[in-house]
């Protein structure tokens, strides 16, 4: 989905390195930066990798950003403005792309973003078995689970594996599972390229809407959703729990101290929907559990 010049360079990278890449960072007039866990490296024209942004590193020029951004938006930038103002877009394959540029402000709110200067492409992957440790420590499910971690610690990857295993009964009893995939990141967007087992997938539904619609129409025993935190999310989660569904959701937090200080966490915990918090460890080991807090 990137412009041809960038695509041809990136495709030359060795398969062993490709499998490690978690993010592709494109900055106007700067070298293409690739990240793998805590490591950052750069790509040369022949696909070889270097570990400093020297003269051999391929630069991302302004027209690369412009062409790639339009392609990632499906050549309909205007229709994606609500996402763009929130700082991201989700491509048709479920890749999440952070964007930044020049914000246009009205009444202290961003109404549009123009002149895109940087993009951060997160590579979605499905890792079978990444939820095994969680299954051992917290299954069978007898309450909601809030999964917390810093970016790239594997929260979304973990949710995908949980959805597959629980909905198909792999290592546990089968549960009717609904996935509220607001940004299309969990399932791979409207093309559904990522396998979520026998889950019912509500793609593009705001969590506050999708949770209630899933309850009314599909009577799920388990509801899975990514990145909760708003007041509307907390209200919908409480209603879902009151309807008898267990909730497994994720939230951004780099540490337990950061997590418990956040007012969003207090609201989510006060719903009574969560019986445990799972703190993930590091970006080097996606889904690795650091600590479990039980209520």
List the helices and strands and how they pair.
Elements: H1 4-11, H2 15-18, E1 23-27, E2 30-31, E3 33-36, E4 39-43, E5 49-50, E6 59-60, H3 62-72, H4 81-85, E7 88-90, E8 96-106, E9 109-122, H5 132-138, E10 144-149, H6 155-168, E11 177-181, E12 200-203, H7 207-218, E13 222-225, H8 231-242, E14 246-252, H9 256-261, H10 263-270, E15 274-280, E16 289-294
Parallel strand pairs: 10-14, 10-15, 11-12, 11-13, 13-14
Antiparallel strand pairs: 1-3, 1-9, 2-6, 3-4, 4-5, 7-8, 8-9, 15-16
Q: State the total count of DSSP E strands.
A: 16
> What's the tally of helices?
10
Average of the residue pLDDT scores:
90
Shape call: globular
Fraction of residues in H or I helices: 25-40%
Order of secondary-structure elements: HHEEEEEEHHEEEHEHEEHEHEHHEE
What's the CATH superfamily of the largest domain, by name? P-loop containing nucleotide triphosphate hydrolases
Describe the protein in words.
- This protein has two domains: 4-122, Beta-Lactamase (2-Layer Sandwich); 132-294, P-loop containing nucleotide triphosphate hydrolases (Rossmann fold).
- It has helices at residues 4-11, 15-18, 62-72, 81-85, 132-138, 155-168, 207-218, 231-242, 256-261, 263-270, and strands spanning 23-27, 30-31, 33-36, 39-43, 49-50, 59-60, 88-90, 96-106, 109-122, 144-149, 177-181, 200-203, 222-225, 246-252, 274-280, 289-294.
- The mean pLDDT is 90.
- Helix 7 (207-218) packs parallel to helix 8.
- The radius of gyration is 20 Å and the shape is globular.
- The chain has ten helices and 16 strands.
- It is α/β, with parallel strands linked by helices.
- A hairpin with a 2-residue loop joins strand 8 (96-106) and strand 9.
- The strands form three sheets. It has a seven-stranded antiparallel β-sheet with strand order 5-4-3-1-9-8-7. Strands 12-11-13-14-10-15-16 form a seven-stranded mixed β-sheet, sandwiched between helices. The protein has a two-stranded antiparallel ribbon with strand order 2-6.
């Amino acid at each position: 989905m990137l412009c041809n010049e960038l695509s041809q360079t990136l495709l030359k990278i060795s398969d062993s390195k490709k499998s490690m890449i978690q993010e592709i960072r494109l900055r106007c007039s700067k070298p293409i930066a690739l990240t793998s866990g805590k490591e950052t490296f750069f790509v040369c024209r022949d696909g070889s990798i270097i570990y400093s942004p020297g003269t051999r590193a391929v630069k991302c020029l302004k027209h690369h950003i412009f062409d790639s951004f339009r392609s990632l938006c499906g050549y309909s930038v205007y229709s994606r403005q609500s996402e763009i103002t929130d700082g991201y877009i989700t491509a048709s394959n479920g890749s999440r792309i952070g964007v930044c540029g020049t914000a246009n402000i009205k009444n202290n709110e961003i109404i549009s973003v123009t002149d895109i200067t940087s993009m951060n492409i997160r590579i979605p992957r499905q890792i079978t078995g990444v939820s095994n440790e969680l299954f051992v420590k917290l299954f069978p499910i007898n309450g909601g689970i809030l999964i917390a971690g810093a970016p790239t610690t594997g929260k979304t990857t973990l949710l995908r594996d949980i959805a597959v295993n629980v909905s198909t009964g792999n290592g546990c009893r089968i549960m009717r599972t609904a996935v509220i995939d607001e940004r299309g990141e969990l399932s791979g967007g409207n093309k559904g390229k990522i396998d979520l087992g026998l889950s019912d997938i509500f793609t593009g539904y705001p969590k506050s809407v999708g949770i209630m619609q899933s309850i009314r129409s599909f009577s799920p025993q388990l509801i899975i959703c990514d990145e909760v935190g708003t007041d509307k999310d907390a209200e919908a989660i409480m209603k879902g729990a009151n309807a008898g569904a267990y909730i497994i959701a994720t939230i951004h937090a780099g540490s337990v101290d950061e997590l418990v200080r956040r007012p969003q966490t207090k609201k989510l915990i006060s719903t009574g929907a969560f019986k445990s918090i799972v703190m993930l460890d590091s970006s080097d080991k996606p889904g690795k559990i650091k600590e479990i807090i039980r209520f």
